[in-house]
User: Fold this.
Amino acid sequence: MADIAVIGLGRLGLPLALALARAGFQVEGVEKDTARFRILTGGKSPIPEPGVQDLIVSHKLTLLPRASMASAPVVFIAVNTPQASVEAMSSPLDLADVREAYQEVKAPQRIVAVSSTMPIGGCRQINENLIGFVYNPQFIALGRAIHNLSEPDFCLIGASDRMMGNEIKAIWTHVTNGRPPILMTSIPDAEIAKLTLNMYLTMKISFSSYLTLLCLARGGNVSEVMRVLLSDGRVDPSYLYPGLGYGGACFPKDLHSLTHIENPMPEHLKRLPLAIQVTDEHILVKLHEAVVNYHLEPVSILGLSYKPGVPYTEMSKGLRLAELLSKWHLGSPSSFTRVVRCWDPMAKPEFPEGVLSGSLEECLTGARLAVITTPWPEFEQAPWHLMAEPNVLDCWGMLQSTQGLHYTRFGDTFREVYV
Assistant:
């Protein structure tokens, strides 16, 4: 019999199952999506996460198409909890898949741990009295999921039953070789901690965006202002870097949860997450204005994934900029291909023919403006000489060598030499 079952083999669940298998546990992996299940049974990874394919080959999972078929005494639920539709007013996140999985696997003497991100109060919507229920959220970054699960900064376990909490604690002590602290809390505390930790990180990113917007509005250089701030020992530099804000699926979803908490919830407690969201949206507005004000075409957009190292484009500023620029010329659909070219090392979204270039060289050839929207290392040595005019708008300040370029760092409004 298997030791552990993992329900949902997506971006979280598959790395989780494989990290547990690598630690020596016999793991059942449950995936009800038929296309994903077919890929897995063929020995392939359905997600482009580094390290996952190698672990699929070296550590076999017992694959099951339905949660009800799982026999393990410990079950981790790692299905998606997307933002709910407007009609689903009971929760800011759609908990239907969590609820379905829980109903299929709950049983006397079985420990069920939910690792899916839950809204505040969400666990009680699944199990009203929280008996036999553990909330064990994970803190992974896509592109580093296996590493984050095997060597986390800490593990968080919310449990109403200490014995069950200790069972989950023993699993993570084994997986991590006892290195990180394992924090045991109540389930409500774990729900709040998970969401607000991510809100804190987005707050720091949003502060960087605020500095960019302030410098654009008042004639400053964001790179210089940030250099001054980071010279103060009280300022932690992590997540403080002027750029285009945050993207992906997790941060926006967690902020959404904190702005849609059910009553009783004072409205003023929703203002901070709302302000973060507004600032992030406004950075895209100012970027679009900056690009349009060049009055140059074609524009090469370098970077469509929301961060380097992943192919995912959720809330990607590069992708959204391309969509905005497609409306720059009203009228014929061909205006998109005339104005915009895009390239990304991994992300390949659907675009009209001719917009998504086959190579970095093709994307830059003949361009009059290049905009770096994702700081992929490939762009450091880009063939700028292929451009018709070497105008480069660097949204992340990543280029070390700018010789021969008409270079602008987004958020820097002037250059002065101090002697």
